[in-house]
Specification:
The protein has a four-stranded antiparallel β-sheet with strand order 2-3-1-4. The protein has a single domain, classed as Alpha-Beta Plaits (2-Layer Sandwich), CATH 3.30.70. The chain is 31% helix and 39% strand. The chain is of the alpha+beta class.
Length: 109
C-alpha cells in the first residue's frame, strides 16, 4: 500500500523536515506547499497561523517510522499527520516509491 501523508508545519521548519524524511528514506518525495493560512481551535481558542503543507509520499511499511520521525521533529504538541492510502497510481511511480523508501544507505551519496 502507498500513502500520501499530509502534515502542516510552521514555514521555517518545512524544508528541514522534508529533506530529513527523504534523506532517511522514510519518504520518496515531499512536496512543500507554502502560503497557507490555517484557522483552528486549540485549547478553547480560535487560532490563526501561517503554515506550510507537506505532501509526503511513502509506503505503508515505512509509515510507522515516518510518523515517529515527524513527531520527534515537529514543534507542535499535537501535529497534524493524516495518512491517505492509495492503490491506484502509475505502476512505474509505485515501483519508484518502493525503491526510494527501501531501507538502506541513507547517506547523501
Amino acid at each position: 500500500m502507498s500513502l500520501v501523508v499530509l502534515v502542516t508545519v510552521p514555514p521555517e521548519r518545512a524544508h528541514v523536515l522534508a529533506r530529513t524524511l527523504v534523506a532517511e528514506r522514510l519518504a520518496g518525495c515531499v512536496n512543500v506547499l507554502g502560503g497557507l493560512h490555517s484557522v483552528y481551535r486549540w485549547e478553547g481558542d480560535i487560532v490563526e497561523d501561517p503554515e506550510t503543507l507537506l505532501l509526503i509520499k511513502t509506503t505503508g511499511e515505512r509509515y510507522p517510522e515516518l510518523e515517529a520521525r515527524i513527531r520527534e521533529m515537529h514543534p507542535y504538541e499535537v501535529p497534524e499527520i493524516v495518512a491517505l492510502p492509495f492503490d491506484r497510481a502509475l505502476p512505474e511511480f509505485q515501483s519508484w516509491l518502493r525503491e526510494a523508501t527501501a531501507p538502506g544507505d541513507t547517506g547523501s551519496g
